[in-house]
Amino acid sequence: MTPIYDLEFFPGSGQKYSPADFIEGLTNKTEVAIIERRLGLLMNHPQMEWGHYVEITKIDENLLQITAGSHRFYCCVDDNTIIVFYICRKVSQKALRQDLKRAGINRDLYLKENRNG
Fold first, then answer.
1. Could you tell me the pTM of the whole model?
2. What is the 3-state secondary structure (H, E, C) of 30-45?
3. Helix (H, G, I), strand (E, B), or coil: what is residue 82?
4. Of 74, 88, 83, 72, nearest in space to 111 by CA
């Protein structure tokens, strides 16, 4: 199956708070597989169907929270690309304020870099 969406991690590998580096640093292969499966589901289904496959919380206009096992990741769709801004371990039922703040900062940096020139 050809993916509907491309996938991008922002900030990129080697940068502070990189989602790609977070995944790479996980030692539990099951956790990695759960995150990769969730991302694969998103990439292969229209956005309006995502709620059938994953737990989604809309944080604001340009930020979604997706639950993947014991992790949460924050992303948006920009054209035909899913941009993952931040991944963290789920430590309580509610998202931590600091995680929402970091995801929002990374999202704002992405929008500034990619929409304003």
1. 0.93
2. HHHHHHHHHHHHHHCC
3. strand
4. 83
Of 1 and 70, more confident: 70
Query: Is a pLDDT exceeding 60 seen at residue 37?
Result: yes
Distance CA 99, CA 44 (A): 27
Structure tokens at 65: 């929270």
d(CA 76, CA 85): 8
Return the SS3 of 109: helix
For the sheet with 55-60, list strands across it.
6-9, 81-89, 71-78, 63-68, 55-60
**pLDDT score at 115:** 77
| Angle made by CA atoms 66, 60, 84, in degrees to the nearest 5 | 40
Average pLDDT in the 73-99 region? 95
